[in-house]
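Many introductory courses stop at the sequence. We go one step further.
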Amino acid sequence: MLFSFLLVPFLIISSIIFPVHAEALKVQEVILENGLKILLLENRKSPVVTFQVWYRVGARNDEDSKTGLAHFLEHMVGPKDYSRIIAKNGGRSNAFTTADTTVYFANMSREKVGVAIELEAERMAANRLDGAAFGTEKNVVMEERRLGIEDNPVSALSEVASAVAYTMHPYRRPIIGWMKDIENISQEELERHFRTYYVPNNAFIVAVGDFSAPEMLAKIKAHFGGIPRGPEPPKMGTQEPAQRGERRVILKKEAELPVLLLHYHSPNARDPDSFALDLLSVILAQGRSSRLYQELVYRMRLVRGVSADYYGLSVDPTIFSITAQLMPGKDPREVERALDELLDRVRSEPVSDAELEKAKKQVEAAFVFGQDSVFGQAMRIGYYEVSVGWRLLDGYLDGIRKVTAKDILRVARRYLHPDSRTIATLIPAEPHRTK
């Protein structure tokens, strides 16, 4: 059942417009008296609005014996028939959980976005979860783990690699949770997690699209402003100790081909080195003309595919990873030796000016193309806000443009060091047969 709140006037603590120069955008930030932050961006290219509620809770806020709480909660909390109501009004909705956040979003026409606002306010203000759905949703989450992790060799390898690369930090936990923990989660634990983290002072709203910011703000205030502020959620202060030597793990699992996965500890986007790390990932394995692709795929024919990934939009220091799927009959040790030689080269020789400029153009193009949709704009603002603060979005392209070949060499030497890496190898195993 939909409902509205009867509200009294409240104080706006902050209402400031900040320009995002690189994208010619103006984001309006407002913080309500209950602590809820609102980020609004007008975009009149099409009569569509994306409305997103971001909660600062993810797998990093779970407990070691209760992994998967944040993800399970995503399945449980919310108005009944939420998706059906959104779809009936011509919108599309979904939700997801990461290591750092849980997000609920709906893409609606400008005339119907009020429906999403009202439903999301109802979600935040909920007094308890739907107990009747608990057993069903637990089975859904368990099946999601079976299909997405246990039946997916590469995902299973990544899960094991993270559990070894991190010894203390909660990033070692799988977002979906370990199967035994999912089985043991109780409804009471989910409700306690909800009361702790689903409070306005632990959330923010991102709305982008065809609207008037004052009118959109008034709608949001009318529905969310009366939700009481909650106690401040506990802070997760665990820091990962420096890695002092290479770690290795082998996973034997039914799979078509071996996979080699390298994890290197790296800083997040707050660190100025993040710009050079972004470009280094592109130089190494972005596209078929990249270094690793040219050497390992084309020239040496050792691997079927290779990728390098660095994602700095995390709350805490992150991982720079390299993944290679081997060709049939190839030995992981041979691929590792070839990869080491290529990485030694990038740690010892500056990249050429032409190679660096090409990478910069690729990064800038991807950044600009990401602004094509209101949903893409909102997601970028949200990821920056939850991890390092949305204002740092303003300097991203300038930071990329200032990177030099010496910067690439420096970060390669500093972060792609063998002593700070974890090597995970997937070895195909025979299918398990029960007697």
